[in-house]
Amino acid sequence: MYLTRHTTPNDSQWAADGNFLPRGLTLSSLLSLPAVAMNAALAALPKGEPATGDPLTPVEPNVEVWGAGVTYLRSRDARKAESANAADVYQKVYEAERPEIFFKSIGWRVVGNGELVRVRQDSKWNVPEPELTLVINAHGEIVGYSNGNDMSSRDIEGENPLYLPQAKSYTGSCAVGPGIRLVGPQDMSDLTIQLQIERDAQMAFVGDTSTSKMKRAFQDLADYLFREMEFPHGVFLMTGTGIVPGEDFTLASGDIIHVSIGGKTLRNRVA
After folding, report:
1. What count of other Cβ atoms lies within 10 Å of the Cβ of residue 243?
2. DSSP 3-state assignment of 152?
3. What is the extent of the structural domain holding 135?
4. What is the pLDDT of residues 178-211, one digit of tens each?
5. Which residues contact 202 (CB under 8 A, 6 or more apart)?
6. Torsion angle in degrees (nearest 10) through CA of 88, 191, 193, 33
7. Does one domain contain both 113 and 202?
């Protein structure tokens, strides 16, 4: 089942496989349920008219987005290269049992498909990070995934690892969408992730990877996130990137970023 959220005259409304679900239904209420109960509830709901209205990010305003880093070998190498003074930090994280996990965005700051992302004005080296983004319920169960773009300022993070929150979290730094594919983690183990960056009607960068290349298991990341932390409305977790443009590339205003996973594409223009 594929869930999407759409604008309506009064608020927003969820749809399943292209047809509206009953008004008033929220993702937060669904994610408060155990996975078996959530799937049963969705199967029992009546399906209405074909969904209309502009697409919205599937992240509701009160839901948090977190991130995990250095989960792919390519990400480790890129982080070491940008952080000459602290390269061993990322090697240690890559090899450690405990993953790097950080807060990315609150839901009301997240942008959806077709909306604008941004680069920081005080940064000169900016890249998108295409990431499979887990959808996790209040009980710590992975119930699906979405496409995510973890916009990052590589020069700020490279200057000092303690600047990670500034490099990762700012207005327009987090895009998730277009919807949610409801599947278990076993169905995410070998998904192709593609990144395309379009500039002046030409492709400035093209790359791909697979979730099979991740060092860490999805459930392990979810379990660490839920250690000493509660998410009564559920949570989204970006799982790190295996695609990083070279050191000679930085995003520019007007670039169009395409993040494709499982036949769905998240598309955002750089403001």
Report:
1. 22
2. strand
3. 64-270
4. 999 999 999 999 999 999 999 999 999 999 999 9
5. none
6. -90
7. yes
- Helices and strands per DSSP (H, E), number in the chain: 7, 17
* Helical residues (DSSP H) of the chain, grouped into ranges: 27-31, 35-44, 73-82, 87-95, 154-159, 164-168, 218-225
CA 205 to centroid of chain Cα atoms: 20
**Domain final residue, candidates 22, 39, 56:** 56
Tokens, residue 202? 């030409």
72 and 170 belong to one structural domain: yes
- pLDDT tens digits, one per residue of 212-248: 999 999 999 999 999 999 999 999 999 999 999 999 9
Q: Are residues 241 and 134 in the same domain?
A: yes
Whole-number Å distance between alpha carbons of 77 and 73? 6
pLDDT for residue 83 is more than 70? no
